[in-house]
Amino acid sequence: MCLIFTERQTTLPQIAVINYTEPNILLFGEVTMSHTKELVEEALEKLENFLEEKHLTEDLEIAAAKRTGINRYFNELGIQVVRVREWKSVQKFSTNYFGKLSSIQFLKSASRNPESFDEVYNLVADEASKATFDWYVQYRTAFAFIAGEAYELFPPEITREAWDHMEKGLKHKSGGIFEIESFSVQANPSELVGSFIVQQYRYDSIVEPKLGDIVFDIGAYIGDTALWFSKAVGPQGKVYAFEPVPSNFEKLKANLERNKVTNVIPLHLALSENEGEMQITSGGSGSAITETAGDTPVKVTTMDKFVEANKLPRVDFIKMDVEGHELRILAGARETIKTFKPSLALSAYHRGDDLIKLPKFLLELNPGYRFYLRHCTSTWGETVLYAVSS
Asked: In sequence order, which residues have a C-beta less than 8 Å from that of residue 74 and are 6 or more positions away?
């Protein structure tokens, strides 16, 4: 079965279900209803009702506006006049192509193999993580079709109002510098809220860096997370902050120097499954690392090689936010994970199948891992998978 949209000129786009025999179609199959499949189907039903309601209000209001004399005049000039409310709604939910791509990848993966997602649901270790899983499945299903408006159907635990309140509570100095927990940090408010207030790289007191730990902050960006880890591990601990994007790395160093931090080692270096050189493509606060296309070359090593070369006695905690490169870094960290069994906090939202592939890979290296799940913003990103060894 395949979900498609059929358009009619005067009616709402409707969700249709068509039978196919081709192998590369979104396929649920005639099997006993899985938990993931139930969640997806509930989300699609809610989505259909949502679109119908939108059609009966906003679409028809705009259609009525088209029939007015002034709009008929402007229409002939290729101009459409709409109310301010409708225009603000369009601006509010501008397209996030990365988020839609990831969500469509998720929907394809979940509809072809819902049992794999069911396994993750059964794997996460507490009810809060299971609730996050349920929300993730339904929100991502809706996001694949309506992007940011999915918030209206499936709001996350952290609401937009709560997030705005946390941002407004930050102490701003000047020049984009904020004071937070004895640090002066040049950063965007959202980054500081995520790192210091929401504390997205810890899960209660179950998965967290501890005093004296050796931490790998992979994808350290401008250093907000490195500073948070610095305080968590204390003077006896050490943080290795990996950031391959040159402009981010300079800001990372500046934030460390501004705060006279001595237990963080900044590294202009990328990690992956093999040593060598790769290319970086940057845009905004995100970047991608590839073998070919890119605008900046960067040296690459593996975590195993780095640990060996620096004769590290252990690795206690690993954090990753690397725009979908997480699994490849884990592939280059097999011995480190097998030997030291570190706790991990991994971004699990960049690729549509991150939520099934990341825990599966970790269990192959250490069957004793327990997993937790948390969504850490009011937007589509920052779903974090946590792992701790039994």
From this structure: 80, 81
